[in-house]
# Entry
Amino acid sequence: MHPKISLLLFCVAFCLSMACHKSPVSSGSTKIVHITDSSFNKNRPSSGQRTEVNVNYNADGSIKNFRFYRLPPSANIDSVVFNYFPSGVTRTRFMNGIAYSPDTFILNSTGNIVTMRWWDGFNARVEQIPYSGNEILIDPTFGSRVYTWYGGNAITVTDTQYHPNGTINNVFYSDKEYVPGDYIYLQEFLQYGRPLTHNRNLIASAFYVAPFDKVVHSFLYTFDTKNRITSCTHTESTSDNYERFWIMYED
# Structure
């Protein structure tokens, strides 16, 4: 699995404060048509890999399909295509131009993914994802991550597979509402074609409680005049590497 995508599934934790001031509501279309995701090093700013994403829509405004491809192509996957149908999403990955591992994600009546039929590289798997209303409770796709919610945000996730007894805390912006372009939104969109985690606020940072991991992940955003996120930058406290998304909308 792509390391930047897998990071998302770690991100869910503590909220410092809840909604003193609301961010302005977007005055333009929030239909994303293009995403560029690039990796950099502070000492070598021109180096790194990038992912380009093109999103296509139906006449009714729903997503028809999107494809993302990596430059230069990775050793395992060079592109991924998502196709949408009324009750779900299919994901097809390509290696050296050859399609493999068609996965299917089934939606419930509220549009959340509740069933995943996918190939983990060794076996075909079927996973069920439980929710309480719109809040995901367990993500079974990588072990068993248990989510705790407070005030509309997923404040912690306990990850027993990758970090035994490790819990991740998230800090959220109290004055910025969750919208397309949020780091968690982008990661889940590129992984599943739809977000799994519907927070109330934008993610600001994330860190492990466990003493063996001191890395703090921070997320900074820029906005256009219509209050839409145009870029998201992810940095790590112990690394010179950083990641930046650029986002384009329909208008």
